[in-house]
Design goal:
With about 280 residues, this protein is an alpha/beta fold. It has 2 domains: about 5-80 and about 170-279, TIM Barrel, CATH 3.20.20; about 90-160, DNA polymerase, domain 1, CATH 1.10.150. The chain has helices at about 20-30, 45-55, 85-110, 120-125, 135-140, 150-155, 160, 170-180, 195-205, 220-230, 260-279; strands spanning about 5-10, 30-35, 60, 60-70, 70-80, 185-190, 210-215, 235-240, 260. Strands 4-5-6-7-8 form a 5-stranded mixed β-sheet. One of its GO terms (molecular function) is 5'-3' RNA exonuclease activity. InterPro entries: PHP_dom, PHP_domain, Pol/His_phosphatase_N, Pol/histidinol_Pase-like.
């Protein structure tokens, strides 16, 4: 039975490895299937597909989409969608703008602390990818405001420090409906430490197709709990390393935190059925 990793980030969002580098690393780890799930972006997909042809790896279209849920952010993994679907393209464009607006709001809050940071500096750090808090942290480090990413997040950029960040992201219902219309599957990302069971039930009622059971943040107890939840609601069970690059703690999970290709095939069957119904 083969191995798969369905949760990977690249330089198209907040990772530090290019899509082609990810595919090469995946081949070295004997992964058969991967999905590039950059935040609110599919910009790395074409490069990954091209590299995958060389290394004989299957790449499933994916994205980790931010949504609003219960007055806060939720992360929903989308897989197997039609990348040219007009509604999905509109979602991606809207979220790219929402990320810029969100970044400007964060910079305004930091200016109240005396930090002089400009959105163009953050854009330059992102180098064309969707901006996020890691890019803001990188600028803070480069300007000497903090000594490390860790300090930036602990002291200034965590949810606890920033509180509720205003955003124009799609609601969870809108994301789920858009992905379905594009023929894809929607999965609750890293749920174990983010949601109460009641909140998970709400996402199931909204129509998610599955739940990420395997994730580095899930210990054995949480993993078994999520497996039970998936079985109870007849949900797809997925997982991955949430790999962001060969640095810090991320590297040790790549090629280790995986799921079986059998679980991937179950998801692909469901996606194919959905697409056939849309024809």
């Amino acid at each position: 039975m083969g191995k798969a990793d369905l949760h990977i980030h690249t330089t198209a969002s907040d990772g530090n490895s290019t899509p082609a580098e990810i595919v090469k690393l995946a081949a070295e780890q004997n992964l058969e299937v991967i999905s590039i799930t950059d935040h609110d972006s599919i910009a790395g997909l074409e490069e990954a597909l091209e590299a995958a042809r060389e290394f004989g790896i299957e790449v499933i279209p994916g994205s980790e989409i931010t949504a609003t849920y219960e007055e806060r952010e939720a992360h929903l993994l989308a897989y197997g969608f039609d990348v040219n679907h007009s509604g999905f393209r509109k979602l991606m464009r809207g979220h790219r703008k929402a990320r810029v607006d969100r970044g400007k709001w964060i910079l305004k809050q930091l200016s109240l602390e005396g930090f002089e940071l400009d959105i163009n500096e953050v854009r330059a750090e992102a180098n064309g990818s969707n901006i996020g808090r890691p890019h803001i942290a990188a600028v803070m480090v480069s300007k000497g405001y903090v000594a490390s990413f860790k300090e930036a997040f602990i002291r200034y950029l965590s949810n606890q420090q920033l509180g509720v960040i205003p955003s124009d992201y799609y609601t969870h219902d809108e994301v789920i409906d858009t992905v379905k219309a594009a023929g894809g599957a929607t999965i609750i990302a890293h749920p174990g430490q983010m949601y109460s069971e009641k909140e998970l039930e709400g996402l199931v009622e909204a129509g998610v197709d599955g739940i990420e059971v395997i994730h580095p943040s899930h210990n054995y107890e949480l993993q078994k709990k999520m497996e039970g939840f998936a079985e109870k609601h007849d949900l797809l069970s997925t997982g991955g390393s949430d790999f962001h690059g060969q640095s810090q703690d991320y590297q040790k999970y790549f090629g280790v935190v995986t799921i079986s290709t059998e679980k991937v095939n179950r998801m692909k069957r469901m996606i194919n059925q959905r697409k056939n119904m849309l024809v």
